[in-house]
Specification:
The protein contains twelve helices and two strands; from the N terminus they run βααααααααααααβ. By secondary structure, it is mostly helical. The radius of gyration is 18 Å and the shape is globular.
Length: 215
């Protein structure tokens, strides 16, 4: 088995996987995507985002001004629309404390912001980390299901749970830029869609034969 660390794993992924940007028109839209995609597929959230665009232009104050029932109706295609509408309200109420100003929110320490986001009902670790990484420009490792599957295939014993894998990766203090952290997440998810779904074979991938050492 050939050893990898986080930097060399990133380099292999970057060499073999295309770079893809998050398909959104604004950072606020990314936050809404992250909330809406919970427990559903990407295709299912597209009508919800289209509805929000038509009704509010993805404007924070306008969304927050909607009656709860109307917001729930707009995002109904995403499923779990009652819980997700409340999560959106909770997030935007938090964002309102910064006057909906990204610069103000970005000026806060990452650990403090993460704790505040996790205190919001409907915002879990993965959603909080997406918001930190893509919206607030705070480097984070997102230990989502594809990351856990990949790292498990690479022999990482701590890959079973979100928190343990995230901590194990970040404890190695990888030397990646903000953009590389964002690309890392995208490359892992694209790799997962190609090699880690049911009936797909990791042994056919360019990472077969490698082991990842988190030291």
């Amino acid at each position: 088995m050939k050893p990898l660390n986080i930097e060399t794993l990133f380099a292999l992924l970057a060499k073999n996987m295309p770079t893809t940007a998050w398909p959104a028109d604004s950072k606020l839209e990314i936050a809404l995507d992250a909330i809406l995609v919970q427990n559903t597929t990407w295709q299912n959230i597209l009508p919800s985002i289209a509805n929000l665009k038509q009704a509010t232009g993805i404007n924070g104050p306008r969304i927050l001004a909607l009656p709860r029932a109307e917001l729930a109706t707009l995002i109904r295609p995403s499923g779990f629309y009652q819980n997700k509408s409340q999560a959106i309200i909770n997030f935007l109420t938090w964002f309102k404390t910064f006057d909906f100003d990204l610069m103000q929110a970005q000026s806060q320490p990452a650990a403090q912001v993460r704790q505040a986001l996790l205190a919001l009902k409907g915002i879990g670790p993965e959603t909080a980390d997406v918001i930190l990484l893509y919206i607030l420009d705070k480097p984070q490792f997102i230990a989502d299901s594809y990351a856990r599957r990949l790292f498990s295939q690479l022999g990482v014993s701590s890959a079973g749970k979100y928190a343990t894998l995230k901590q194990a990766v970040e404890n190695t203090r990888p030397q990646l830029t903000l953009t590389q952290w964002q690309d890392f997440h995208g490359h892992i998810d694209d790799f997962g869609k190609q090699y880690l779904r049911r009936y797909q074979n990791f042994s056919d991938s360019f990472l077969a034969g490698y082991t990842l050492e988190l030291v």
